[in-house]
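Appendix B. Raw example, untouched.
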Amino acid sequence: MATLKPEFADLLRRADLLGQSHAVIACDLGLSTGNVAVRLHRARKALREALLSHAEMCPTGCCLQRGRHARSRRSAANGNGGSP
């Protein structure tokens, strides 16, 4: 999380690690709960991209293979024929 924008890291820490509700976070930051939800979505996307970037640097490639396998299973389950 150290590579994320500070505001993204703060939102993720508060919502996902501390379990604060969107309403509490919104009140503290002077935002609407909808805006908090949107910002959390963007923060989680940024975290996912950072993790995937890190997995691509894995010397054995095992991290990336596991991720591809999970994505293929999700695609197949959604009727996409296993294509990403």
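End of appendix B.
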